[in-house]
Structure to design on (226 residues):
């Protein structure tokens, strides 16, 4: 069964460093998302991506964040200069078409020290 | 804005007990409603969904009915198993194109033999 794959599963980084979280969505899907979950809190939407551009973003997704789909398969989330409060589980999701099921990856646990 | 409130966990039940996890929502219009499940070490998986009032979603013995009058989508299972131990997330998406999911905080369920 097709699945969304995220790497790495766990990333530890020093405050101020840049991190890139990687996702391989399901190959024929058209809509891509990043969500995050700070420990003990809600899963929060960060950004959606369609047709090679950001279609929607939340207030959390400030200038420190960026997304790319560089090669038609990978979908990356970059955090330019990490802060302690960026520590969270980051989930990637892909959707085939409007109003269809979102498929999620296993998540990347980011720990900023 | 749109929001989802679900009961606080953790919930601990004995095998074969009846499960209810409450979920209420606030949304404009008529959202689609979902329950996602996260088993230990895995990503979010769609458990069931309902797209209009009075619809009942069901899967793996779990059920939830879309109640517009009470803005609720409570998850139930008649007889839980140890393998149901997981975190359960209630979520909604408004019906305007492929908008992102709005999640509740999640409820951790532990089933003991």
């Amino acid at each position: 069964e097709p699945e969304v794959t995220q790497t790495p599963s766990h990333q530890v980084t020093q405050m101020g460093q840049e991190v890139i979280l990687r996702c391989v969505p399901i190959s024929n899907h058209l809509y891509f998302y990043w969500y995050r979950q700070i420990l003990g809190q809600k899963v929060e939407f960060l950004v959606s991506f369609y047709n090679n551009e950001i279609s929607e973003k939340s207030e959390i997704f400030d200038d420190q964040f960026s997304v790319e789909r560089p090669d038609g398969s990978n979908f990356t989330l970059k955090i330019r200069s990490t802060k302690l409060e960026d520590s969270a589980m980051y989930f990637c999701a892909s959707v085939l078409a409007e109003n269809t099921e979102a498929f999620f990856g296993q998540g990347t646990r980011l720990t900023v020290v | 804005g749109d929001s989802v409130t679900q009961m606080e966990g953790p919930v601990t039940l004995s095998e074969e007990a009846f499960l209810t996890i409450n979920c209420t929502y606030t949304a404009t219009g008529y959202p689609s409603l979902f329950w996602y499940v996260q088993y230990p070490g895995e990503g979010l998986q769609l458990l069931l969904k309902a797209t209009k009032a009075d619809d009942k979603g069901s899967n793996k013995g779990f059920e939830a009915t879309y109640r517009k009058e009470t803005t609720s989508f409570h998850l139930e299972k008649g007889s839980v198993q140890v393998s149901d131990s997981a975190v359960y997330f209630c979520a909604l998406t408004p019906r305007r194109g492929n908008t992102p999911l709005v999640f509740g905080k999640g409820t951790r369920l532990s089933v003991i033999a």
Chain A touches chain B through 28 residues (CB under 8 Å).
